[in-house]
Write a structure and sequence with these properties.
The complex is a heterodimer.
Chain A lengths: L9 H4 L4 E6 L7 H11 L9 E5 L29 H8 L3 E7 L7 H18 L6 E8 L10 H14 L6 E5 L4 H31 L8 H17 L3 H17 L7 H21 L3 H15 L9 H24 L10 H22 L41 H16 L3 H18 L3 H17 L3 H18 L2 H18 L2 H11 L8 H15 L12 H16 L5 E5 L7 E7 L3 E3 L4 E9 L5 E10 L9 E3 L17 E2 L4 E8 L9 E12 L5 E7 L7 H10 L22 E5 L5 E6 L4 E2 L3 E10 L5 E10 L5 H5 L1 E4 L13 E10 L4 E10 L3 E17 L2 E18 L2 E9 L8 E2 L4 E9 L5 E10 L4 E2 L10 E3 L4 E9 L13 E9 L9 E6 L5 E2 L3 E6 L3 E3 L4 E9 L5 E7 L5 E4 L3 E6 L4 E10 L3 E4 L3 E5 L7 H7 L3 E5 L7 H6 L1
Parallel strand pairs in A: 1-2, 1-3, 3-4, 4-5, 6-15, 8-16, 18-25, 27-35, 37-45
Antiparallel strand pairs in A: 7-9, 9-13, 10-11, 10-12, 10-14, 14-15, 14-16, 17-19, 19-23, 20-22, 20-24, 21-23, 24-25, 26-28, 28-32, 29-31, 29-33, 30-32, 33-34, 36-38, 38-42, 39-41, 39-44, 40-42, 43-45
Chain B lengths: L1 E7 L5 E6 L5 H22 L10 E7 L3 E7 L5 E7 L7 H20 L13 E2 L11 E5 L3 E3 L2 E2 L1 E2 L6 E4 L8 E4 H15 L3
Antiparallel strand pairs in B: 1-2, 1-5, 3-4, 4-5, 6-12, 7-11, 8-9, 8-12, 10-11
Helix pairs in contact in B: 2-3
Chain lengths: ~1150, ~200
C-alpha cells in the first residue's frame, strides 16, 4: 500500500491506443532499421493514427493465454477486475505483430530467404498461441518497386511468400527504403491500424460471446467485468461512442452488485474507475453537462457507502479523490477549449476534495489515535506475495474471498490496525493544502475573490495545524484586510485568533502585539473574558515578560514557544514597535480636533486629542506626541509621564495618561503659531501613542492625520446618518460619535486695531483727478511701526480698467498712461496710540463705469502671547466702489444764419455751429474756457472767442456757444467734411487751486457740404417803418462755371408797395454777381411778409423757391409811423 | 427550513445573520460571505436592465455538496442570502421566492422604524432614552410605533393615538426593544424552524 493508494491507476487515466509490436528491427546496430523505427515513433502528431508501437525481438514471449473455458457453470469469479488486465491489453498483448524482414524481389537466394522469413513468422505465431493477434510481414527493400502488375516476378514471389508464411495477401507489405520513408510509414501504419481494429472487434465479440453462459446469481461480478472489458476494447478500437455506452451499462451494473462491508471498497473502486472513464469520455465528446450530471449521480450514489466505520477515513479519502479527479478532468477540458463559469468551475470540485481531505484528517485523528506502544503487526497483513493485489479494491489479507462473513476476525483486526497505523503517517495537511491551492487558482480565474479569501484562510489554518506557522501567518495576514474592509467582524475575529496563536507560537513580538491590539478592539467579537486574557498577556509582553499560552495550542509547540519567549526576554535589541493603525482596528481610538478652523497668530492654537479605549481593563499609556506638517510645533505637543513599568495597571483611574474603557479622554494642547505661518495651514500629520516604556517593551500606535483607523470612516458615516438621541453626559464628557476630526487649521493674521476711513465725493468724473482722502487712526495700545499703504484699483477686475485707471499721490499734475493703477507699499511711518494720519490719493479714471478701489494698510506690532514676544504683521483693508460718470454732455448742431436747422451746409455760404454743454455732474463745474479748433476745411466768418469762460454750471445747467463758419466748396466729399474739435477746459468748482484743469476734447461731427448753382442773399435793414422807404438789394451769385439764364419775378404783397424790376430775364456769367435793387414801401405795421422773390433757373429745374427761402428773408418787422417826424431817420431812408 | 438567513448591507457588510444554532456558525458566515461573489457578478450583469424590469430574486447562487445558497437583492442594493439544506427537496424556487418576499417586507418594516438607523446592524435592543430628565417616572416618549420597555409595555391612550411608555418603578434600568426588529427576528426564526 503506497501513500498514493487512492490515486487512479495510470492505465486508467491514459488514452487507450491500439498496441502494435514491431519485430525483426535491430534499432541499435542497423541504421536502416533505426530510421524505420524513428519514422514510426518520432513526431507523432494528432493527425497520425492512435497506435502505441513497441519494438520487441522476434522470439518475444507474449503473456500466455489461459485455456478457453468451455463452461462457466462451476466458475466463481474472485473479484471484479484484475489489477493487471488494463496494462496487459495496453502494453503486453498486441493487436498486431509485425515481422520486418529485408528481402528484395530479385534476391538471388530467394528460396532460403523465403523459408527464413516463414520461420520467423512461425516463431511469432508460436508465442501468440491462442490469441487472435494478427501477424503481418513487412519486407524492407532497397529498390523502388515497379507499379503493381508490371513486375511479374514480384507478384509471383509475393504469392509464394504468402503461401509459405500462411499469410493473406493483405498482411504482406513492402517498405522500399528510399527517400519517401515517412510517407511509406504513414501508409503502413494506417494499414496496421485497420488490422488492429479488426483485432479489437473480434475481442469485443469474444467477450460478448461469454455473456450467454453467465447467470445472475453467481456471475454478478462477471457482468461488470465483461461490460468493462467491452468498453475498454471499444476505446482501444477508438470507438468512443460505444465505449461510453458500455461504460454506462457497466456503471449501472456495479451498483446492482450486492454491497457489503467486505466488498464495498471494491465496488466503490470500480464505480470510481468507470465513473472516471464516463466523465472523461463526456468531456472528450464536448458534453460537459453530461459529465457533471454523471459525476453528481456518482457522488449521490456513493456518498453514503461508507463501509467499515473503523476505516471511514478511507471513504473520505476516496471521496476526496473522486472530486479531485473530476476537477482535473474539468480543468483539462478547459485547457482544450471548454469555457467554465463562475458558479461551475473546477475550483468547486477541488474545494470539495479539500473538504473531504479535511474530513479524512478528522476521522484519522479520532480513529488512529493508538498509543505509541502498539506496534505495527508483523507479518505485515498488507503485504501480498506478488507485492500487488490481484483485484482492484480488495483487502490484501482476504483476496478473492467473496463470502460476506469474516472467516478470520483476528486477521481482520490486524489488517484494520495496519491500515490505521499507516493512515497516521499520511501527511494530510499537505494533501489538503495542495487541493486548496488548486481551488484558489481556479477561483481566482473565475472572479470569486471572497471564495479565494475563504480558501486562503483555510489554507492558513491548515498550515497552522501542520505547524508551519510562518506560512500560516503569511496567508492569514494577506486575507485579513479583505474581511476588515468589508466589515465581517466575526470572520475577522476568527482569523485573528488563529493568527495570534501562530505569532505566539513563533514568539513574533510585533505580530503578537498587533493582533492583540485588534482582538481587544471594537471590531473583535470576542467575549470579555477572552479580551481580558489577551489584555493581560499584552501587558505582560509590554513589561518584558512572557505571555500565557493561547488556548487550544499543541502542547509541544507551546513548550517550544515558551522557550522562544524566554529567549526574547534575555535578548537585547530594539524593543520599540511602531504600528500604523490605518490598516487595522486597534483597541484605542484617536481623534484630533482643532478648536477652530482658523486661529489668529496672536492667539495660541488649541486642539484636543480624544482617546478612547475599547479593552476591558483600564490601560495606561506612557507618551503621546503629535506631529505637524511644520515640525517645529511637535515639541509643544508631547505628554509624557515617567512611570515605572510595573505601574501600567496601578492607580488605573488616575492621571490623564490612563484610559478607562468606554470613556472618552480629552487632552488639550496649546501652542503659539509662528508668524511665518500666517496664511498657511497647520496640519496634524500623525498622532503617536506609546504603550509601555523603553525599559520594557514599547508599542507606538501611529495614526496618520487626525486619527481614524480602518473602520472609523464607515462609523463616522453611520453616526452622521443617525438621528438617535444621545443620552446626556456630565459636562466635561462628550460622545465619541459626535466628535468630528478636524486635523488642520489655518493661521491667519492678527485682527488689526486701527481704523481706516475714506473721504471722497462720488461719483468721479471722467478724466478728473478724483481726490480720495485716506484717514488711518491707530487704536492699538502700543506704537505701531512700519505702516504701509497700498491703494488703487483692486486687482482682479477687468483688465481694461487697469489701462484706464491711474493713481497718484500728487494731485497737482495730471497723470498720464505711465502712472500705475495700484500704488503699493507706500511707507507712511509709525503711529503712536491714538494717532491719526491722512493721505490724499488722486485717481484718474479714463472711462465711465464702476470700479472697486482697495485701500490696504499694513503695520507691525509687538505682541506678547503666552509669555512670548512676537512681532505681528496686521493689516486692514477697505474697498470702495466708485462710479465714474461723464461730467457733461455736449450737443452740437448746425443751423443756418436764420437759425434754421440744417441737414447739410452749402458751400461758401455761412452757417452757424452751436454747442450746448449740459452739466451731468452732481457737483458744480467750472468751465474755465472753451476753444474751437477748426479743421482746415472750415473757415471762420468772425472771431472764435470763447463765450463761456469761467462759467459755473450747477447740475442740469447748460452753457451754449455759437460760431459762424463757412465751408469753401470742396467738391463732393464722401461722409462729409470734418469740422474740427471743441475743447473744454474745466474743473470741479470745489477743487483746490492747484488742481490742474482738465481739457476735454470733443470731436465735432462731420457735415455734408453741398454746392448750389445760385446763391442769393439780401441786404436789407433789420426793420422797416410804415410809409418809409425800405431799400432792399438782392445779390445773385452764379456759383457754377456756366452762364446762367435766370428768370426773376417779384410777386406783389398787400403790405408793401415797391419799385424795381417786377419781372426780368437775365444772364449771369460764371463767378459773377448780379445785383437787383428794390425799394419797398411798407404800408402796414407788424410782422409782414415781404414781396416774395421768385427765381427760376432754366438750367437747373431743381433749384426751387423753397431752397431760395433758406437764404433770403421772407418777412420783416415793420414799425408803425412815429408821432414826430424824425429827421434823421428820414435822412437815412 | 432555511439553515441560515442573512441581510447584507449595500457596502457588503452583514446587517443581520442568523444560522441554526446546532451547527458551526462560522461556516455559514463564510458561506454567506463567499456567495457575495456571485451576487456581485449577477448585479453587475443586471445593471444594464431597466430598473422597473429588474427581478429582485437572484435565484440559486451556487450549490455546495450539502447546501444551496439563494440570493435576493433590493433596489437599494441590500442583499438577502438564504442557505438551505441540499437534502430539502420540499423547497422549490417558488417557495424560496415567496420566503424572500416575506423577508423583504419584514425588512421594510425595520426600515420604517424611526429607531432604526439605516446601515446599522439589525439588533433588538438598545438603551432607553428619557425624553426629559425633568419628568422622572413620567412618559418617556410618544411614538406611533408599539415598543416594549423593560417590565412595562407601551400603552395607547386612544385607539390610533400615539403610544406612551410609562416607567413603573423609578430608578430601574430599562431596555428598549422596538417591536419592528423583534418582528424581523421572529420572521427569520419562523423561516428557519418551519420544516426542520
Amino acid at each position: 500500500m503506497s501513500p498514493t493508494q487512492w490515486d487512479l491507476p495510470v492505465e486508467l487515466c491514459c488514452r487507450p491506443m491500439a498496441f502494435v509490436t514491431l519485430t525483426g528491427l535491430d534499432v541499435v546496430y542497423n541504421a536502416v532499421h533505426r530510421a524505420v523505427w524513428d519514422a514510426f515513433c518520432a513526431n507523432r502528431r494528432a493527425d497520425r493514427v492512435p497506435i502505441s508501437f513497441k519494438v520487441l525481438p522476434g522470439d518475444h514471449e507474449y503473456p500466455k493465454c489461459r485455456p478457453k473455458r468451455t463452461s462457466y457453470e462451476w466458475y466463481i469469479p474472485k473479484g471484479i477486475l484484475k489489477t493487471g488486465w488494463m496494462n496487459k491489453h495496453l502494453n503486453l498483448v498486441p493487436a498486431l505483430v509485425v515481422v520486418f524482414y529485408e528481402l528484395d524481389w530479385d534476391e538471388p537466394q530467394w528460396k532460403e530467404k523465403q523459408s527464413e522469413c516463414a520461420t520467423r513468422v512461425e516463431i511469432v505465431r508460436q508465442s501468440l498461441q491462442g490469441r487472435n493477434t494478427k501477424v503481418a510481414v513487412v519486407l524492407i527493400q532497397k529498390k523502388t518497386p515497379l507499379p503493381p502488375g508490371e513486375d511479374v516476378i514480384a507478384s509471383e514471389r509475393a504469392a509464394a511468400l504468402c503461401n509459405a508464411c500462411e499469410l493473406s495477401g493483405k498482411s504482406l507489405f513492402v517498405l522500399p527504403h528510399t527517400d519517401h520513408l515517412v510517407g511509406y510509414i504513414i501508409r503502413l501504419e494506417n494499414a496496421f491500424y485497420e488490422h488492429a481494429q479488426t483485432y479489437y472487434y473480434t475481442e469485443i465479440r469474444r467477450v460478448k460471446s461469454h455473456k450467454e453462459f453467465l447467470n445472475k446469481t453467481t456471475h454478478q461480478l462477471l457482468f461488470v467485468r465483461h461490460q468493462f472489458k467491452i468498453a475498454f476494447f471499444s476505446e482501444l478500437k477508438q470507438d468512443t461512442q460505444n465505449a461510453l455506452k458500455n461504460y454506462r451499462t457497466a456503471y449501472n451494473l456495479v451498483h446492482e452488485l450486492r454491497a457489503h462491508e467486505t466488498n464495498i471498497l471494491e465496488i466503490k473502486t470500480m464505480a470510481g474507475f468507470i465513473n472516471y472513464k464516463i466523465c472523461r469520455l463526456c468531456f472528450q465528446h464536448n458534453t460537459p453537462l453530461d459529465a457533471i450530471a454523471q459525476f453528481r449521480k456518482h457522488i449521490d450514489l456513493c456518498k453514503k457507502k461508507i463501509g467499515s466505520a473503523e476505516l471511514s477515513f478511507e471513504h473520505a479519502a476516496w471521496m476526496s479523490k473522486q472530486f479531485q479527479a473530476f476537477g482535473d478532468l474539468f480543468d483539462e477540458a478547459i485547457k482544450l477549449g471548454l469555457t467554465a463559469i463562475q458558479t461551475q468551475n473546477p475550483g468547486f470540485y477541488y474545494q470539495q476534495a479539500a473538504y473531504y481531505a479535511q474530513e479524512r484528517k478528522q476521522l484519522a485523528k479520532s480513529l488512529c489515535n493508538h498509543e505509541a506502544s502498539i506496534m505495527y503487526p508483523n507479518p505485515d497483513p498488507l503485504e501480498t506475495q506478488t507485492g500487488v493485489l490481484d483485484f482492484y479494491g480488495q483487502r490484501s489479507w482476504r483476496q478473492g474471498i467473496l463470502s460476506f462473513d469474516l472467516s478470520d476476525p483476528e486477521k481482520e483486526k490486524v489488517g484494520v490496525l495496519a491500515i490505521q497505523l499507516k493512515e497516521r503517517n499520511v501527511a494530510h495537511s499537505e494533501i489538503i493544502i495542495t487541493l486548496l491551492s488548486n481551488a484558489v487558482a481556479q477561483f481566482k480565474k473565475y472572479k470569486c475573490p471572497r471564495m479565494k479569501s475563504h480558501l486562503m484562510v483555510q489554507m492558513g489554518e491548515e498550515y497552522y495545524y501542520a505547524k508551519d506557522y510562518t506560512k500560516a501567518l503569511k496567508l492569514l495576514d494577506y486575507v485579513m484586510c479583505d474581511y476588515r474592509s468589508e466589515g465581517w467582524w466575526t470572520l475577522l475575529t476568527s482569523i485573528l485568533t488563529t493568527a495570534l496563536k501562530c505569532s505566539y507560537l513563533m514568539a513574533q513580538l510585533k505580530d503578537y502585539i498587533t493582533y492583540s491590539l485588534e482582538l481587544l478592539g471594537r471590531a473583535s467579537t470576542l467575549k470579555d473574558d477572552q479580551k481580558s486574557r489577551i489584555e493581560k498577556n499584552l501587558i505582560n509582553v509590554l513589561m518584558n515578560e512572557s505571555p500565557d499560552p493561547e488556548p487550544d495550542c499543541d502542547i509541544f509547540a507551546v513548550k517550544t514557544a515558551q522557550k522562544l519567549w524566554a529567549d526574547r526576554i534575555s535578548l537585547a535589541g530594539s524593543n520599540i514597535f511602531t504600528i500604523g493603525v490605518q490598516d487595522f482596528v486597534p483597541f484605542v481610538q484617536c481623534k484630533a480636533k482643532f478648536h477652530a478652523p482658523s486661529f489668529h497668530v496672536d492667539v495660541p492654537v488649541e486642539f484636543d486629542i480624544y482617546l478612547k479605549a475599547d479593552c476591558p481593563h483600564p490601560i495606561r499609556f506612557s507618551k503621546l506626541c503629535v506631529s505637524f506638517n511644520n515640525q517645529e510645533y511637535n515639541q509643544f505637543c508631547v505628554i509624557e509621564e515617567a512611570s515605572k513599568a510595573n505601574e501600567v495597571l496601578e492607580n488605573p483611574t488616575q492621571g490623564k495618561m490612563c484610559l478607562v474603557p468606554g470613556k472618552t479622554r480629552k487632552l488639550l494642547f496649546k501652542f503659539v503659531a509662528k508668524t511665518e505661518d500666517v496664511g498657511k495651514k497647520i496640519e496634524i500629520t500623525s498622532v503617536d501613542l506609546a504603550l509601555g516604556n523603553e525599559t520594557g517593551r514599547c508599542v507606538v500606535l501611529n495614526w496618520q492625520g487626525g486619527g481614524g483607523d480602518a473602520a472609523s470612516s464607515q462609523e463616522a458615516l453611520q453616526a452622521a446618518r443617525s438621528f438617535k438621541r444621545r443620552p446626556k453626559l456630565p459636562d466635561n464628557e462628550v460622545h465619541w460619535d459626535s466628535i468630528i476630526i478636524q486635523a488642520s487649521t489655518m493661521i491667519i493674521s492678527r485682527v488689526p486695531n486701527i481704523s481706516v476711513h475714506l473721504r471722497h465725493e462720488p461719483p468721479a468724473l471722467t478724466n478728473e483727478m478724483y481726490c480720495l482722502v485716506v484717514t488711518v487712526q491707530s487704536h492699538e495700545k502700543t506704537q505701531i511701526r512700519d505702516v504701509k499703504l497700498t491703494a488703487g484699483l483692486k486687482p482682479g477686475q477687468d483688465a481694461n480698467l487697469t489701462q484706464k485707471t491711474h493713481v497718484t499721490l500728487h494731485g497737482t499734475e495730471l497723470c498720464d498712461e505711465s502712472y500705475p493703477a495700484l500704488l503699493t507699499d507706500i511707507p507712511v511711518g509709525d503711529l503712536h496710540p491714538g494717532e491719526q494720519l491722512e493721505k490724499m490719493l488722486y485717481v484718474r479714471c479714463g472711462t465711465v463705469g464702476s470700479r472697486m478701489f482697495l485701500v490696504y494698510v499694513s503695520y507691525l506690532i509687538n505682541i506678547t502671547a503666552e509669555e512670548k514676544e512676537i512681532v505681528c504683521k496686521c493689516h486692514k483693508d477697505e474697498t470702495v466702489t466708485i462710479e465714474t460718470v461723464f461730467p457733461f454732455d455736449v450737443a452740437v448742431k448746425f443751423v443756418s444764419t436764420k437759425f434754421e436747422h440744417l441737414e447739410r451746409v452749402y458751400a461758401d455760404i455761412p452757417f452757424l455751429l452751436m454747442t450746448d454743454l449740459l452739466s451731468a455732474s452732481p457737483w458744480a463745474l467750472t468751465v474755465v474756457s472753451s476753444e474751437l479748433q477748426l479743421a482746415p476745411s472750415m473757415t471762420t466768418v468772425d472771431q472764435l472767442e470763447s463765450q463761456v469762460d469761467n462759467v459755473v454750471l450747477q447740475t442740469g445747467e447748460s452753457a451754449s456757444e455759437c460760431f459762424c463758419l463757412r465751408c469753401p466748396s470742396l467738391g463732393n466729399v464722401e461722409g462729409g467734411v470734418a469740422t474740427g474739435h471743441y475743447i473744454i477746459s474745466w474743473k470741479r468748482t470745489s477743487a483746490m487751486e492747484n488742481i490742474p484743469v482738465i481739457r476735454t476734447v470733443i470731436t465735432l461731427p462731420h457735415v455734408i457740404v453741398e454746392n448750389i448753382p445760385l446763391h442769393v442773399n439780401a441786404d436789407l435793414p433789420s426793420f422797416g417803418r410804415v410809409r418809409e422807404s425800405l431799400p432792399v438789394k438782392y445779390h445773385l451769385q452764379n456759383k457754377t462755371d456756366f452762364v446762367q439764364d435766370v428768370e426773376i419775378s417779384v410777386e406783389p404783397s398787400d403790405a408793401f408797395m415797391f419799385s424795381g424790376l417786377k419781372q426780368i430775364r437775365l444772364r449771369i456769367l460764371p463767378g459773377t454777381e448780379q445785383e437787383m435793387l428794390y425799394n419797398f414801401y411798407p404800408l402796414m405795421a407788424g410782422y409782414q411778409q415781404l414781396p416774395s422773390l421768385n427765381i427760376n433757373l432754366l438750367r437747373f429745374p431743381n433749384f426751387t423757391n423753397q431752397l431760395l427761402r433758406r437764404f433770403i428773408p421772407t418777412s420783416i418787422f415793420v414799425k408803425p409811423q412815429g408821432r414826430l417826424m424824425d429827421d434823421t431817420s428820414i435822412a437815412a431812408a | 427550513m432555511a439553515v441560515c438567513i442573512a441581510v447584507i448591507a449595500k457596502e457588503n457588510y452583514p446587517l443581520y445573520i442568523r444560522s441554526t444554532p446546532t451547527e458551526n456558525e462560522l461556516k455559514f458566515h463564510y458561506m454567506v460571505h463567499t456567495s457575495l461573489d456571485v451576487v456581485d457578478e449577477k448585479i453587475s450583469a443586471m445593471g444594464k436592465a431597466l430598473v422597473d424590469q429588474r427581478e429582485l430574486y437572484l435565484g440559486l447562487l451556487y450549490p455546495t455538496e450539502d447546501y444551496k445558497v439563494y440570493g435576493y437583492v433590493t433596489n437599494s442594493k441590500v442583499k438577502f442570502v438564504m442557505v438551505v439544506d441540499s437534502s430539502n427537496t420540499a423547497l422549490r424556487d417558488n417557495e424560496i421566492r415567496s420566503m424572500f418576499r416575506k423577508l423583504h417586507n419584514s425588512y421594510t418594516d425595520v426600515m420604517c422604524n424611526p429607531f432604526y438607523n439605516p446601515g446599522d446592524r439589525i439588533q433588538s435592543r438598545w438603551a432607553l432614552l428619557p425624553v426629559s430628565a425633568s419628568s422622572p417616572g413620567g412618559p418617556y416618549f410618544l411614538c406611533p410605533y408599539p415598543v416594549q420597555v423593560g417590565p412595562t409595555s407601551c400603552v395607547r391612550s386612544s385607539p390610533g393615538g400615539p403610544y406612551s411608555c410609562v416607567r413603573s418603578s423609578p430608578g430601574e434600568p430599562y431596555s428598549l426593544c422596538p417591536i419592528q426588529s423583534r418582528a424581523f427576528d421572529n420572521m427569520v426564526t419562523s423561516m428557519m424552524i418551519q420544516v426542520c
